Amino acid sequence: MDNQDKKRLLIIEAALKRFAHYGLAKTTMTEIAKDISFSKALLYYYFPDKLSLYVSTMEHLMHLISRDIVKSIDKTISCREAILKLILKRQQYIQKYYNLFESSKMISNELPEELYEKFSRARAFENLLISSLFSRGLASGELRMEDPKEVTEVFLDAVSGIHFNKMTREKHIFPGKEQFKAIFAKEKLLAEIFLTGLKA
């Protein structure tokens, strides 16, 4: 990693801490620069505005989450354990970086196309990961199913349904921290019921 890449990463990591603690609206480029003893001009050299820094910070966080989830899943011994671990990890990250995720709701009308792409890629990665876990369960004899890809789609649709149903009922676009806990409890229960139904 060259010096420019190191500086860029340092800025992103400082922004991640600030955004996670204060959210996007209450964080300034001046504060981020001060946190790492950089000039404001240097910050703007790497990121033309706060929104572009937010996009890069979200991308960085998605990479961290993906790596951590894959690492955790690799240590599991069953499909059931892996799926439950994935749901738990997702919940932990949402709780830890709640202000960062909530900011995407606040600027949803201004979200750059590239951030939508990154969210789409994160969803595609999760889809691929869960599909591979169902395939692993099928190969080991833990589960039985005809088509792991189709089962993955149904599972993810059901998980999305829990989220959507909670938001529709309570008339919110983005869940509060307590709502996320309720969503997580239902996701976990759904996974347990779903995997019990697929048991060989």
TrEMBL record:
Gene Ontology molecular function terms on file: DNA-binding transcription factor activity; transcription cis-regulatory region binding
Limits of the HTH tetR-type domain: 5-65
UniProt xrefs under InterPro entries: Homeodomain-like_sf (IPR009057), HTH-type_TetR-like_transc_reg (IPR050109), HTH_TetR (IPR001647), Tet_transcr_reg_TetR-rel_C_sf (IPR036271)
DNA-binding span(s): 28-47
PROSITE patterns assigned: HTH_TETR_2
Keywords from the named record: DNA-binding
Keyword Acyltransferase appears in the UniProt entry: no
Top-level lineage group: Bacteria
Annotated protein name in UniProt: TetR/AcrR family transcriptional regulator
Organism of derivation: Pedobacter psychroterrae
